[in-house]
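Record type: monomer structure entry
Structure origin: computed from sequence
Chain ID: A
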Amino acid sequence: MSLNDVLGFENSSGLYASTPKEDFLNHAWQDKNSIIRIEQLEAVVRDKIAPAALSEIRDGLKKVGMSIRLNPYIMELIDWRNVETDPIRRQFLPMISELEADHPCMSVDSLEERNTSPAPNLVHRYPDKVLFLVTSVCPVYCQYCTRSYAVGQDTPSLQKDNVTSANGWAAALDYIRSTPTIEDVVVSGGDIARLKPQNIKVLGNALLDIEHVRRIRFATKSVSVQPMKFLSDDAWFSAIAEVAKRGRDMFKSVFVHTHFNHPREVTPLVEKAMRRLFAESIYVRNQAVLLRGVNDDSKTLIELTKKLGRVNIQPYYVYSCDMVMGTEHFRVSIEEMQHLEREVRGATAGFNTPLFIVDAPGGGGKRDVHSYEYRNDKYGVTGYRSPSVDRNRMYFHFDPLRTLDAEARAEWRAPGGREAILERLRLAKPIPVAAE
């Protein structure tokens, strides 16, 4: 079996063509040979791309400050011959020429997760759901990462909070036990692919033992970026399967949530991983992010939706790219997102059609892209209400500056412009909350 067979297309770069297939298909080999420094990247791809393109990547990484971690599997998915426009490369390796200045309303923690953390490693925003951050590392690092404040290595631009491992879980578990409204726990980080099998079993069973916890979601991007994890790490896979089976026996749900953004990521190896999960009756949902230059066209999104459905992954959400520093070049406007949702809806069965979601900046939570209650086209401002979080507050999303006219862009960028515009919005008297 060649790498082309593994990856499912004829244009693999051949960077690892001499690697024995049994090594390439082993999760431990993938981890050991992951690229974490620019010097390693240069050594691997120097003969595949033009020096100017390599310089673009080097300068881009210096500019954004996000950690780099790419395993050989993803390196092979990148079309290095067309690296400037490749949608896989764009997610993990920025080029300096494609970066844009941050919107004045950007922040490191745009969802204000740290302000809704009642215990270490826990985010409690919705009444019946918590986000449990159990690790700060991932198999790969995405440049648009929502949780750049906590994930990856410390960098000059983004200082990371400390998200502990198993030793720091006790307080979070105690909080969940003492809060009977919590029915749903999302176990994330980081990525559960970095947890030891024993830790998955200990954590999963501890959550199942809490009577009011009805649903557990294990979040891992490894289905898309390291599918061999499900095929070669038997102890880790068995830990998930064991917790899921115990959950079914208790009439509780244990799901896997994953993250595909582009149809080229759905490879034959992904199908093999999904066949193993499917055989264990483990339900998998996908949460994509809408990214300019990656999947911001209806053809790509429809193809992604259908390819996911064919391997029994439910296309659950398509998120707007969060307003995290260093991501302005990825973002699209609310109007464009609405257009894409209309194009995708009806292309396949409704239960396999993703919801297009804005995770409202400031901690408003997930809102349907069409459900806004305030709109200012001039400044690209959209207001969402979230009664289950705070019914007296409007949460504002801001379109990328490139989508505004020159006058509005100048106002945003002027000294004191951000404060002046936001104050003007407060006087705009958005639609009031309906009386109960």
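Annotation 1: The CA atoms of residues 249 and 404 lie 54 Å apart.
Annotation 2: Residues 149-163, 432-436 have pLDDT under 50 and may be disordered.
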